Backbone:
């Protein structure tokens, strides 16, 4: 992969541990498989990032998932706020509330100011409003 020009690999981690990740992915061993992939990337010297889709199932774990991401040595953590369309339409019942969405993005903004790895919100257009509002406030 490195020789072909690939710069970074994305690996999805949607729970802070095997039990929660495997439940989210509905696949026993998914967490172990992700960890095996991460170990392979590290051994090869390949940069990797962690992607996390936030739903009601893992919202309370997001801080722990970020800490796990850092502990694993990832270059970045990209969070995706569930958009219940396409493959995600079956998860519509797990979409977080508007209040949780706002609180999560506010936390994300604060954390991104001092996070030692790249921390990016994806599928979260509301984040630009949060950034703008906090820029005006001087935060």
Residues:
């Amino acid at each position: 992969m490195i020789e072909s020009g690939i710069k970074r690999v994305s690996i999805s981690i949607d729970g802070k541990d095997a039990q929660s990740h495997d439940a989210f992915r509905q696949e026993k061993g998914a967490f172990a498989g992700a960890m095996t992939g991460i170990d392979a990337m590290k051994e090869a010297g390949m940069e990797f990032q962690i992607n996390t889709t936030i739903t009601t199932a893992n919202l309370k774990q997001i801080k722990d998932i970020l800490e796990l991401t850092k502990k694993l040595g990832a270059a970045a953590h990209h969070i995706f706020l569930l958009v219940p369309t396409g493959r995600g339409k079956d998860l519509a019942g797990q979409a977080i509330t508007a209040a949780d969405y706002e609180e999560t993005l506010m936390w994300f903004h604060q954390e991104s100011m001092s996070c030692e790895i790249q921390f990016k919100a994806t599928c979260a257009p509301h984040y630009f409003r949060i950034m703008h509002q906090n820029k005006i406030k001087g935060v």
In short: The CA atoms of residues 121 and 128 lie 10 Å apart. The helical segments are 18-25, 30-44, 62-72, 98-112, 127-137. The first strand starts at residue 8 and ends at 12.
